[in-house]
Amino acid sequence: xxxxxxxxxVHRVLQRLYPRRFRDDYGDDMVSLLRDQxxxxxxxxxxxxxxxxxxxxxxxxxxxxxxxxxxxPAMVLVASFVAASAVFAFVEGLLGVTVAALGAALAMLIWRxxxxxxxxxxxxxxxxxxxxxxxxxxxxxIGATTATGELSEPAWAAAALALLAAVTLLGTGVVLGLxxxxxxxxxxxxxx
Length: 192
Prior knowledge:
Order of helices and strands: HHHHHHHH
Radius of gyration: 21 Å
Strand content: under 5%
Largest sheet: none
Low-confidence stretches: none
C-alpha cells in the first residue's frame, strides 16, 4: 500500500462521520478529489486541508439533518456560538475560555464558508442590535442579582441562563460587527 492509498483509506474511514445520505451522494466524489489533489500537491498540504474540511463540514452536515430547509448560515453561526457559550459555562477556568474561543473560531469559519457568495448579510448589518440586547440583558441580570442578594436554586439557574444568553448576544454582536467592518474595508479597497 502506497502513501496515497493509505491517506485515501484513512479519509474513507473519516468519511463515516458524515451522515449516511451525504456519504452516499458525495463520498466517491470526495475520494476522487482527494486523489487528484494528492497527485498535484504535497501530501502534507492535502492532508491538512482535508482535515480542516472534515472538521468544518461534518458538524454542518449533521446540523442540516435536523434543521429545516430554510437554513441560513447565520443560523449556523448563532447555534455554534450558543454551543461554545454553553461549553464555557460548564468548563471552568482557562480550559473553558480556550474551548469557547475555539468553538467561536470554528463557528466563524463555518459561517464564512457556508454563506452565499452574494448574500446581503442582513444579520451582519444589524450587529449593533444584538450587541445592545446583550448589554441590556446583562445589565438586567446584574441589577436583579445585586438587588435580591442571595438567590435560591431556581432563581440562580434562571440568572445563569440569562447571563449565558447575554454573553452569547454580546459575542455574536461583536463578531458580526467585526465581519461588517472587514466587509466594508474590503469593499472600499476593491473600489479604489
